[in-house]
Amino acid sequence: MKRRTFLKNTLMTAAVVTTFAGLMIKPKRVFAAWPKESFDITDLSDSIKSVYGHDDLSETSEVKLKAPDIAENGAIVPINIKTNLKNVESIMLFVENNPQPLSSGYNLTSKSVPSIGTRIKMGKTSNVIAAVKSNGKIYSASKEVKVTIGGCGG
To answer: Residue 57 is part of a domain; what is its CATH number?
Structure first.
């Protein structure tokens, strides 16, 4: 057998097996996105209510929100959220003056470390609110971030 024929047949067999295996392997659990309706709401209070059923957030020092005082570019504002609270179920991030206040949401399992690092878009200077659901209560931290160049169409 010639070397080229051997390599060609081997590569073709590997491609078929990989394709077939890819069709047969199914994930145990599929994670879906947060309901789209929550992201389409334009009022901060209504947005919080759509996620939690109420807008009663308890400001606490247990939730640490790290954000810049001034964002040079509103298109990429780095945000870090962490907490030492136990039994954290979710972490949600709201931006008060954005067209859609709910920026992102993270559902966590009991084995997760309650720490999130992300980048968000901000259209203009606004309060950024981190809401953490733990043991059925909603804890929050907020910080004003000044934006010099808008990122949400500004």
So the answer is: 2.60.40.2470
The total number of structural domains that make up the chain: 1
Q: Is residue 24 domain-resident?
A: no
115-120 sheet: strands from edge to edge = 63-66, 77-83, 115-120
Q: 61-99 burial, b for 16+ CB within 10 Å, e for fewer?
A: eebebebeeebeebbebebebbbebeebbbbbbbbbebe
Rounded CA gap, 58 and 131, in Å? Answer: 9
pTM: 0.72
pLDDT tens for residues 54-89?
888 888 899 999 999 998 888 899 999 999 988 899
